Amino acid sequence: MIRAIVLCLLACALAVSGTAPPSDSHASSVFPSTPAGRLAADFVSAFNSEDHAAMREFFTRHLSEAGAKQRPAEERANRWKQMKQDLRSLGMVRVKASGDDSIVLLARNGAGEWVELTFECEPGGAGMLAGIRIEQTQAPGAEEAGPRLTPAELLRAVDATVDSVARADQFSGVVLLARDGRPILGRACGLAEKRFRAPNRGDTRFNLGSINKIFTRVAIGQLVEQKKLSLSDPVGKYLNDFPPEIADRVTIAQLLDMSSGMGDFFGPEYDAMNKSNLRTLRDYFPLFAKKPLEFEPGTDHRYSNAGYVTLGAVIERVTGQDYADYMRDHVWKAAVMESTGFFESDAPEPNVAMGYTRRLPGHEDSAPPRVGPRRENIFSRPARGSSAGGGYSTAGDLLRFANALQAGRLLGAGWTRWMFTGEAPGGAESAAASAAASASGKGGFGFAGGAPGLNALLEIDSESGYTLIVLSNYDPPSAEELGRGIRRLLKRAAP
């Protein structure tokens, strides 16, 4: 199944096991008795509760008026509910920094991985929450255990990390690391085509999986900027393929943030079908268009490839262009992405990596997956990708995309900020404020895509200036695991 990890402000959705959460009494005992400390203690208690109402109650009681205007309490609770599916639990370890209006916690999730949570309160607001940021971090003492790395030492360490996983045949693909928009390291490992021993190269085109969703988001932002659609529009305003419960109630915004109630199109029906019939967006519709919603729109979050296929169909309806043609003319061309496209699997294309999977046919999505020798993934992927995923690109093109997005060449200032924060411009927010926010050098985001025989990662950290791209023609988490190792090294990089 194609999965994406969306990391606003580098918030990592991490794969976890079912470790039990710590008791609330243990967590609360380590918090300072400050407004921010009490708020953080309440959050950890609510997060570790098995009752979703606890998280909703937390945001209802603690969210500041300004914070509620940016994103309502119910929406924040739903976002953290979705995050909990990955994190499972938060074990409080220690307070890294504390003040009356802010606190930084170091915590361990249910898989034993480390995260840092920053709580910001409204100044003088008696502990009312302004926002929460979460990002992956190192274990306590990890930075002290490893000295700061000079630029040359960093590149040597990244090189050694790539060599290690490639020699173990755990990774086949391309790694590109850039700083301030300029490449500082590029590596290609393994084979793009095992039959002919054709090696991967820096310009090899890889299947991106769900990273394509970011292009769909850009296109929607462009059309909203041009006032050709609105995020609050119902799907039925543009498409007549859905029953009233979807057409009249599901909005463009809910499709984007996966709170529509529409599910996935992967499953037994997809597994049994002839994938060579999937060539246009409309070809996917029989897999989901008439199925009932899985929950009331706007009340929950669930990963939804169906929602992003629907967004692609909306783009086609509004523009009168095929989705891939719109991407070419208005996104890829603007970013000078000359090697990116949607290729049909039975149409010869030069310099395209074949995907190789160890997951056995019929068990691609089992957990844990049943594995065997590597084989080509031609029977598990559609003939052509969609607005939910499956297009192809190179590491260089993805860097050009990241640079174009940050430079405002794809969207205006307000909608560029929306790409990084999820907060749409409007209301009292002025264009000047949007421009200042988008140019502040804070935060970033990441996307990942994965399916049998492919894994891709794009991370932009605007604060440090690093952009990391890892493209693999092996199963997940080949690219994501390598990305995590490189990210640990970047934490040690000298300023």
Question: Mind explaining what this structure looks like?
Answer:
The protein has 18 helices and 15 strands. It is an alpha+beta fold.
Shape: globular
Mean pLDDT: 84
The count of β-strands is: 15
Main β-sheet, spatial strand arrangement: 6-5-15-14-13
- Helix fraction by DSSP (H/I, runs of at least 4): 25-40%
Structural class: alpha+beta
Report the C-alpha radius of gyration, rounded.
22 Å
Q: Extract low-pLDDT stretches.
A: 1-29, 427-442
The helix tally amounts to 18
Range of strand content? 15-25%
- C-alpha termini separation: 39 Å
Main sheet specs? 5 strands, antiparallel
Quick structural summary:
The chain is an alpha+beta fold and 495 residues long. Helices cover 35% and strands 18% of the residues. The chain starts with 23 loop residues before the first helix and ends with a helix.
